[in-house]
TrEMBL record:
This is Annexin. It comes from Microcebus murinus (Gray mouse lemur). It is found in: Cytoplasm; Melanosome. A pair of annexin repeats may form one binding site for calcium and phospholipid. Belongs to the annexin family. Its main location: cytoplasm. One of its GO terms (cellular component) is mitochondrion. May associate with CD21. May regulate the release of Ca(2+) from intracellular stores. The keyword Repeat applies. InterPro entries: Annexin, Annexin_repeat, Annexin_repeat_CS, Annexin_sf, ANX6. The keyword Manganese does not apply.
Length: 330
């Protein structure tokens, strides 16, 4: 698998709009929503071609020009998948992620896949911002929410990830060998069982949740040398349930984060029916971070572009807006 070079350039598909004028944009949106029926195409074209920072400025201008809340107006004009996508693009990223986490924990069932997808892939800075946004928006800490909504070892993994305390440094060879040994023991491919299962499980969790990405890449290489197995494959074989899914997501994210998201996008569209929630969540949250890299991984692995996949799987204004976020054919 091609690994992104150290310090590889991650690029989003949406950037600052060059001749940006927030009051002009606010007026254009007001006009598009005035009267009976709204000009949805004008709305989606404008919003998908501005960066998140610029959209926040448009919200401010809209409020000062019209004394109205742009988000509320958009909400009343748009509906369904299109509304979810456009309103998602309008939210500051940390608040968007906080809302997705909240939604994943609402109601009867928990959407563990969404919790894992977000918490296993965000950087320390992103996680810290999400914690602040969560507290601000829901008057409860993210940790408390996770605590009351998940349980057991899975809960411990999520809470550990939600501290945003991953090490930032490079690799340490000797420690990487020790870490690989712990992994080999817990995954039952090592010859020397040492210590009891629970303390080993905790050590394995600590390794995956707190070591830096460069260090973990080294650990995975040492693991292969030691066992002749790939760590991801072994986790899939030896573990089960949400714990397995969480560990696999961390490993995939460390190996190649854009590929992790490309796989998730592909799964959201393959087969009968579309998982619009996942599709929207990834398109919105990666649009300014690494969506171009995700597109590259997608076409390489699936032999069709993300653009083609979206075209074949969605329709109407939702399709137009997704393609605008996608930003081109590969």
């Amino acid at each position: 698998m091609a690994k992104p070079a150290q310090g590889a350039k991650y690029r989003g598909s949406i950037h600052d709009f060059p001749d940006f004028d927030p009051s002009q944009d606010a007026e254009a949106l007001y006009t598009a929503m005035k009267g009976f029926g709204s000009d949805k195409e004008a709305i989606l074209e404008l919003i998908t071609s501005r960066s998140n920072r610029q959209r926040q400025e448009v919200c401010q201008s809209y409020k000062s020009l019209y004394g109205k809340d742009l988000m509320a107006d958009l909400k009343s004009e748009l509906s369904g998948d299109l509304a979810r996508l456009i309103l998602g693009l309008m939210m500051p990223p940390a608040h968007y992620d906080a809302k997705q986490l909240k939604k994943a924990m609402e109601g009867a069932g928990t959407d563990e896949k969404a919790l894992i997808e977000i918490l296993a892939t965000r950087t320390n800075a992103e996680i810290r911002a999400i914690n602040e946004a969560y507290k601000e928006d829901y008057h409860k800490s993210l940790e408390d929410a996770l605590s009351s909504d998940t349980s057991g070892h899975f809960r411990r993994i999520l809470i550990s990830l939600a501290t945003g305390n991953r090490e930032e440094g490079g690799e340490d060879r000797d420690r990487a060998r020790e870490d690989a040994q712990v992994a080999a023991e817990i995954l039952e491919v090592a010859d020397t069982p040492s210590g009891d299962k629970t303390s080993l499980e905790t050590r394995f969790m600590t390794i995956l949740c707190t070591r830096s990405y460069p260090h973990l890449r080294r650990v995975f290489q040492e693991f292969i040398k030691m066992t002749n197995y790939d760590v991801e494959h072994t986790i899939k074989k030896e573990m089960s349930g949400d714990v397995r899914d969480a560990f696999v997501a961390i490993v995939q994210s460390v190996k190649n984060k854009p590929l992790f998201f490309a796989d998730k996008l592909y799964k959201s569209m393959k087969g009968a029916g579309t998982d619009e929630k996942t599709l929207t969540r990834i398109m919105v949250s990666r649009s300014e971070i690494d969506l171009l890299n995700i597109r590259r991984e997608f076409v390489e692995k699936y032999d069709m572009s993300l653009h083609q996949a979206i075209e074949g799987d969605t329709s109407g204004d939702f399709l137009k807006a997704l393609l605008a976020v996608c930003g081109g054919e590969d």
